[in-house]
Each structure stands twice: as structure tokens, then as C-alpha cells.
Amino acid sequence: MAQDVHQVTWSEDVHLSGQTRSILSTISKWTKFLSIVGFIMLTISVLLILSAGTLITSVNRYMQVEGFYPYNPGTFEWTYAIMYLIVIAIYFIPVYYLYKFSVRIKEALATNNDVTLTEAFKYLNSHYTWFGILTIIGLIIFAIALLFMIVAFTTYM
């Protein structure tokens, strides 16, 4: 019976072929690019949120002074800005892990250091764990919102 070519045997010594090293090098470049784009988008988001908070607060004060609103509609008054900033901070963590992976994998390939390679993959594991948890939370929120919509629809029909 022929031996399966794709069978993997585990040992403490893992040696990377030239093709594997090339693939990991390409992955390092792409993950660094994606993480830097992520950092830029997060920075732009923070600036937009702070600008929007300032603008909406100023417009609400102007509208109140001019008598357009008999009440204070300015619930935005930084409440939503703080909520968005918390979401941005939560999203920062997986982007940071992706960046650390790209730096560590590049370093591991350059130095042939197994410890650094393991550390790189720990960062990648943390990155995907974060996104997995965020996906589960998003699905739960979606399910709860769907449940409320179904209840509201059946109640008012």
C-alpha cells in the first residue's frame, strides 16, 4: 500500500522549505500592509468622530440659541462619540495583533529563530480569536435585534 504523501508527522524540529519561507514572507508583507491601512482607517475614524461631535454640539447650541428647538436635542453631546471611540478601541486590538504578527514573522524568517516564529503565530492566533469573539457578539446582537423585530411585528399587526 502506498504511503500518503500528505501525511504529516509531528516533531519538535520543524524546518521550513524555501517555498514555505517565500509564502510566509509574502504573508508578512500583506499583513503589514493591511495592518497599516487598519491603523490609518482607525485614525481617520477617530478624527471624524471627534469632528462630528464638535460640529453637532456646535449646531445644537446654535439651534437652541436661535430658538429652533424648544428643548435640547443634543443627546449627541459626546455620548455617541464615546460609544464610537470604544468600538474603535476594540477594533484597534486585532489590528495591533496583525501588525505584531507581520513584524515577528519577518524577524523569524530573517533570524531562523523558532521562538520568534512561535511568538508570531501566537499573535496571529490572538488576531483571529478576537475576530471570532467579535463575530459571535455581532451574531448575538443581530439575533436579539431580529427577535425584537419579530415581536414588534407580531404585536402591531
Radius of gyration in whole Å, from Cα? 25 Å
Q: What is the terminal separation in angstroms? A: 68 Å
The portion of residues forming beta strands comes to under 5%
The structural class is mainly alpha
- Strand segment count: 0
Biggest sheet overview? none
Number of helices: 3
Low-confidence stretches: none
- Measured as a percent range, the helix fraction is over 70%
Along the chain, the helix and strand elements come as HHH
Q: On the 0-100 scale, what is the average pLDDT?
A: 84
Shape: elongated
Per-chain topology:
Elements: H1 18-65, H2 79-111, H3 114-156
Helix pairs in contact: 1-2, 2-3
Keywords for this structure?
157 residues, single chain, elongated, mainly alpha, 3 helices
Question: Could you describe the 3D structure shown?
Answer:
With 157 residues, the chain is mainly α. It is 79% helix and 0% strand. It has three helices and no strands.
In short:
This protein has 157 residues and is mainly α.
